[in-house]
């Protein structure tokens, strides 16, 4: 066989001649019911060379005299039909109009067309079937495909072609009653998902491939539960539209089940044309580019061909990793990493002056709730003053659009992180709308972001447990990072004024259920193999989150998953007064005054008990400082070096608005 393969083209040519001769002879036999008259024998012998030459020429023109028969598919079948039809038409022209052969039975050509397709096409698919069956090894695992739709059919075809995967597809299961018993890619639909356990046992299934990209989270969870009950391996095909660029079903897309598969969120449909129209050929600047949202935003905007991408972050490690990722996976995109802190207005102004961005995505922020309860002044500096710096520099350099990433924690805030993000929203609402369009996008938690609950749970599972959950009734909104970024890009194309957009987050999810699902996905059973411990709410946390206030008017947009709300009217002059006040309080390290200012600016803010306790400590320390200054506690204070006195004992001159700018 190996020697014959060295002369593959000659073998193909010889086999085609034999097959064409057989089909032509068979057409004469069928035309005369297998008893042809002897008078037609000379006609057959006279036209046989002509038929073979013409059809070989047609096959050569369609590329059918080269290639590998073991890979024959639908495209080859179409080519065979087109070549046979073209050859038949040409033969009819030659026999009837050129050579004018008397007594030639014209129906022979029609029969020959059918037989040629059967003989030539059948031989190719027979070689493919033999090759696939010969490549099957005993080590292959019997595989069941869940879902007999387009995705499942594609997976089955690829499995049959690729024996190196060591997976032998034996059939489908599908909940559509109309598909029960039919064959797809030569494999039978064996039943519904309810009968999976019996099918797995009878056919010795070792692997299950879940190929239902449109399945809901509860459906996926039920299928996974059956797989775990039967103790078989399983892989899942995620929604193909989970990324902006989309894709097609393929074995390469199969992966282990993840938590987002159990959420069952419908794939996001976005207007690619409007996003491309806004981004293509523009200079984009992203602050916080090294973070979870910023880095995914950087990757996705590359699909819309911006002229230049400016990546701003103060973490050199995060920026380096992002640059390495873009250089490897998006080599066509020109990007500039810029190490800078949004609190440094001079550095931000220099970056804007050098690159002149058209669109700014502001994702830089402190977001860890418990840490910000202990670091109020840093939260103000970064989330409020940093946003103010970038927003004003954006207007100063005439950028077209400014998009700020906000948070659901800005609604009825009970923590410093939330109230600072709400004040940042008010800054956006107050800015003039002459040249720059300001937009804020508010959404909840994203799965897998840095420091979020899912990576923490995964680390605890890897360490052998237990998993720590704050409260059995704690619940949060969740969406995937790619989904959030897609909706942010879509929202950036909407609105004509200073708007706050709210992303549709679906139903809130119990954190305890999230933990149990992660344990099950790890092959363990919650409360048996791994326990869950409730530790109590952390400082500043709520049992549940909200996406809008009762008084905020909500309106739909052209996108079903994006809504716009009335965030309230506030003047820029009022914002300047607030910022001057906050600046003085931060410089003075006046904790209690800062909290009072928060409540004045955001009346719905309810500080946590931990922050109120810090305010009491702050008042006590301030009283001690005043008494020491009057000499009432001179002896105790004299033992402390002056350079070690707490910084908040020094009351500086308030910073003016012009100095802040």
Helix-strand layout with pairing:
Elements (H helix, E strand, L loop, with lengths): L1 H5 L1 H24 L9 H21 L12 H25 L8 H29 L5 E6 L3 H12 L5 E7 L9 E2 L2 E2 L7 H7 L4 E4 L6 H14 L2 E4 L22 H5 L8 H8 L3 E5 L4 H10 L6 E6 L2 H14 L5 E5 L5 H11 L3 E4 L6 H6 L1 H21 L4 E5 L10 H15 L6 E6 L2 E3 L5 H10 L4 E3 L5 E2 L1 E3 H11 L7 E5 L5 E2 H11 L10 E3 L19 E3 L5 E4 L6 H16 L3 H11 L7 H21 L4 H5 L18 H4 L1
Parallel strand pairs: 1-2, 1-5, 5-6, 7-8, 7-10, 8-9, 10-11, 11-12, 12-17, 13-16, 14-19
Antiparallel strand pairs: 3-4, 15-18, 17-21, 20-21
Give descriptors for this structure:
alpha/beta; four-stranded parallel beta sheet; Rossmann fold; 661 residues; elongated; nine-stranded mixed beta sheet
Structural write-up:
The chain is α/β, with parallel strands linked by helices. The protein has 24 helices and 21 strands. Strands 9-8-7-10-11-12-17-21-20 form a nine-stranded mixed β-sheet, sandwiched between helices. Strands 2-1-5-6 form a four-stranded parallel β-sheet, sandwiched between helices. It has a two-stranded antiparallel ribbon with strand order 3-4. β8 (308-313), α12 (316-329) and β9 (335-339) form a beta-alpha-beta unit. α4 (74-98) runs antiparallel to α5 (107-135) and α15 packs parallel to α16 (416-430). The termini are far apart.
């Amino acid at each position: 066989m190996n020697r014959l393969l060295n002369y593959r083209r000659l073998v193909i040519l010889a086999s085609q001649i034999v097959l064409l001769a057989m089909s032509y002879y068979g057409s004469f036999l069928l035309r005369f019911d297998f008893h042809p008259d002897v008078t037609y024998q000379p006609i057959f012998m006279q036209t046989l060379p002509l038929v073979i030459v013409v059809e070989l020429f047609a096959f050569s023109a369609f590329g059918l005299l080269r290639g590998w028969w073991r890979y024959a598919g639908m495209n080859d079948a179409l080519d065979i039909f087109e070549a046979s039809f073209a050859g038949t038409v040409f033969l009819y022209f030659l026999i009837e109009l050129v050579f004018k052969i008397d007594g030639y039975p014209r129906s022979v050509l029609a029969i020959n067309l059918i037989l040629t397709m059967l003989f030539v096409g059948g031989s190719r698919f027979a070689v493919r079937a033999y090759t696939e069956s010969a490549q099957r090894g005993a080590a292959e695992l019997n595989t069941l495909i869940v879902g007999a739709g387009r995705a499942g059919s594609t997976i089955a075809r690829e499995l049959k072609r690729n024996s190196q995967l060591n997976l032998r597809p034996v059939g489908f299961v599908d909940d559509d009653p109309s598909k029960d018993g039919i064959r797809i890619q030569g494999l039978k639909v064996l039943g519904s998902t309810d009968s999976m356990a019996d099918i797995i046992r009878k056919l010795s299934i070792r692997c299950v491939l879940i190929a239902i990209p449109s399945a809901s989270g509860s459906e996926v969870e039920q299928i996974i539960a059956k797989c775990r009950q039967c103790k078989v391996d399983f892989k899942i095909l995620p929604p193909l539209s989970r990324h902006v660029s989309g894709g097609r079903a393929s074995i390469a897309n199969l992966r282990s089940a993840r938590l987002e598969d159990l959420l069952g969120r419908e794939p996001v449909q976005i207007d690619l044309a409007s996003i491309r129209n806004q981004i293509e050929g523009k200079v984009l600047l992203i602050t916080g580019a090294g973070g979870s949202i910023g880095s995914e935003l950087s990757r996705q905007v590359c699909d819309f061909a911006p002229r230049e991408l400016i990546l701003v972050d103060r973490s050199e490690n995060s920026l380096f990793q992002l640059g390495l990722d873009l250089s490897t996976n998006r080599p066509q995109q020109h990007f500039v990493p810029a190490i800078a802190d949004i609190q440094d207005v001079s550095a931000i102004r220099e970056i804007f002056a050098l690159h002149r961005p058209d669109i700014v995505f502001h994702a830089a922020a402190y977001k860890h709730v418990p840490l910000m309860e202990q670091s109020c002044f840093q939260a103000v500096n970064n989330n409020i003053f940093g946003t103010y710096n970038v927003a004003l520099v954006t207007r100063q350099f005439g950028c077209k659009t400014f998009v700020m990433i906000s948070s659901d924690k800005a609604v009825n805030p009970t923590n410093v992180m939330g109230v600072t993000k709400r004040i940042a929203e008010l800054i956006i609402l107050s800015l003039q709308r002459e040249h720059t369009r300001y937009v804020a996008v508010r959404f909840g938690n994203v799965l897998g972001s840095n420091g979020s609950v899912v990576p923490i749970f995964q680390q605890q599972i890897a360490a052998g447990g237990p998993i720590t959950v704050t409260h059995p009734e704690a619940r949060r909104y969740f969406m995937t990072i790619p989904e959030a970024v897609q909706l942010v890009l879509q929202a950036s194309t909407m609105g004509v004024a200073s708007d706050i957009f709210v992303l549709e987050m679906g139903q809130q999810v119990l954190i305890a259920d999230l933990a149990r699902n992660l344990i099950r996905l790890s092959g363990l059973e919650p409360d048996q193999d791994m326990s869950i411990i409730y530790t109590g709410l952390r400082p500043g946390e709520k049992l549940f989150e909200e996406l809008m206030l009762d008084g905020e008017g909500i309106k739909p947009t052209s996108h079903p998953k994006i809504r716009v709300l009335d965030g309230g009217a506030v003047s820029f002059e009022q914002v300047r007064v607030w910022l001057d006040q906050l600046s003085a309080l931060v410089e003075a390290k006046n904790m209690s005054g800062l909290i009072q200012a928060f409540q004045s600016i955001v009346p719905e803010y309810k500080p946590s008990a931990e922050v109120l306790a810090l305010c009491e400590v702050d008042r006590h320390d301030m009283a001690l400082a005043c008494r020491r200054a009057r000499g009432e506690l001179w002896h105790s204070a004299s033992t402390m070096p002056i350079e070690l006195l707490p910084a908040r004992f020094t009351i500086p001159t308030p910073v003016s608005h012009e100095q802040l700018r």
